[in-house]
Amino acid sequence: MQEPIREAMIINPNLYRTFMKAGKDFHNLIAMYLFYTYNAQHQRTKD
Known about the structure:
Blueprint: H1 13-20, H2 26-42
């Protein structure tokens, strides 16, 4: 059985502003960032 991920997934405010500048693709960028962050934590790799 896999251990649950216990670390918080945090988005730096500056990165969030950068994503917001993308306009209508903002939600896609957030989703992709969270996907990669989750997988990095799941695989126990660094950013």
